[in-house]
């Protein structure tokens, strides 16, 4: 029996990305339903998505949440398999979607995620995180592999990831969170015996150039979110261990190829580390301070947060 497939793209002011991210999905032999969810931007995202052949769903900006909006979208589509993507992730191969879903079709995994590589012309600080987190070799992980993978055991990215909806239903779907909805559901599913497949053959171009301030803010959010998920993430190894490996590998690479970049790399690492550490200590910090240090300005005025629905 052919399984139904849905693709969700979460968008806000994403018109410039649609000509690059939509065609490989629209032309896929799998014929997925494609839903572009837009949080009330007025740049023409919705109109262009419709003209290209995608379905659209518009929500109020105040209703957007990384988790609950994806949950709304997957229930809207109600397909057997749902793919979560962001519009700035461009599949590099016409069969990228097929590659991504193969382990789910074969019942080897309930979750898969794609390899991310930096966009053409990206600098070292854009490219290195992708190379570190997305190796060239595919693999399959279960909770029994926690000792081998450490904190990476629960890693996933909804910039391009696929889920069997029946598995998501088992855990109540995506939770309302500051961020890290992908990590939260992977941790729950692996603990229930499901497996996750990293599919290196499914490749997307996806990278960003962040300032030091932006790195701090993003890692503040990460630290705060992961502190709140601490009980769920237990047994997966220490984030600090993986952070040390990241720094060591970065400096090793720079020392060999771009030693003049090391001073900036030190600032880069410090911004990430300080943001993360302060975030983890800020669960009970005053709201004004969280707003000041966070990159997610929309979150603190969202309905999920103000009504106490979000972790």
Draw up the topology in text:
Elements: E1 5-11, H1 18-26, E2 33-38, H2 45-52, E3 55-58, H3 68-77, E4 81-85, E5 90-91, H4 96-105, E6 111-117, H5 124-133, E7 139-141, H6 146-149, E8 160-164, H7 165-170, H8 181-191, E9 196-205, H9 212-228, H10 230-233, H11 239-257, H12 262-280, H13 287-293, H14 303-306
Parallel strand pairs: 1-2, 1-4, 2-3, 6-9
Antiparallel strand pairs: 4-8, 5-9, 6-8, 7-9
Spatial gap, N to C terminus: 38 Å
Overall geometry comes to globular
Low-pLDDT ranges: none
Order of helices and strands: EHEHEHEEHEHEHEHHEHHHHHH
- Give the biggest beta sheet: 9 strands, mixed
- CATH class value of the largest domain: Alpha Beta
- Tally the helices: 14
Derived structural class = alpha/beta
Question: Could you tell me the mean pLDDT?
Answer: 95
Q: What percent of residues adopt helix (DSSP H or I)? A: 40-55%
CATH architecture of the largest domain: Alpha-Beta Complex
CATH superfamily of the largest domain: Spore Coat Polysaccharide Biosynthesis Protein SpsA, Chain A
Strands, count:
9
Based on CA atoms alone, the radius of gyration comes out at 19 Å
Please tell me the total number of domains. Answer: 2
CATH fold field value of the largest domain = Spore Coat Polysaccharide Biosynthesis Protein SpsA, Chain A
Tell me the fraction of residues in β-strands, as a range. Answer: 15-25%
């Amino acid at each position: 029996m052919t399984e139904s497939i849905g693709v969700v793209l979460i968008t806000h002011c994403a018109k410039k990305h649609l000509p690059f991210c939509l065609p490989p999905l629209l032309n896929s032999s799998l014929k997925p339903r494609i839903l572009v969810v837009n949080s009330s931007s007025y740049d023409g995202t919705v109109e262009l998505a419709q003209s290209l052949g995608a379905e659209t769903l518009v929500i109020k900006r105040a209703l957007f949440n990384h988790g609950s909006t994806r949950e709304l979208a997957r229930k809207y589509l109600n397909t057997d398999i749902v793919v979560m993507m962001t519009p700035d992730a461009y599949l590099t191969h016409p069969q990228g979607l097929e590659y991504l879903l193969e382990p789910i079709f074969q019942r080897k995994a309930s979750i898969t995620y794609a390899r991310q590589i930096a966009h053409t012309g990206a600098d070292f600080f854009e490219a290195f995180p992708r190379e570190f987190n997305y190796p060239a070799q595919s693999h399959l992980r279960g909770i029994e592999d926690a000792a081998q993978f450490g904190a990476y055991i629960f890693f996933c990215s909804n910039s391009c990831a696929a889920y069997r909806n029946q598995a998501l239903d088992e855990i109540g779907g995506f939770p309302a969170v500051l961020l890290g909805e992908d990590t939260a559901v992977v941790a729950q599913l692996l603990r229930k015996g499901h497996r996750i497949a990293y599919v290196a053959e499914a490749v997307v171009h996806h990278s960003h150039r962040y300032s030091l301030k932006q790195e701090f803010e993003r890692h503040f959010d990460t630290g705060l979110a992961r502190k709140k998920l601490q009980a769920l993430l237990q047994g997966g190894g220490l984030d600090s261990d993986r952070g040390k490996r990241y720094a060591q590998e970065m400096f090793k690479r720079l020392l060999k190829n771009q030693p003049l970049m090391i001073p900036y790399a030190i600032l880069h690492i410090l911004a990430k580390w300080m943001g993360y550490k302060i975030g983890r200590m800020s669960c009970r910090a005053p709201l004004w301070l969280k707003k000041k240090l966070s990159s997610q300005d929309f979150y603190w005025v969202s309905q999920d947060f103000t009504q106490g629905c979000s972790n």
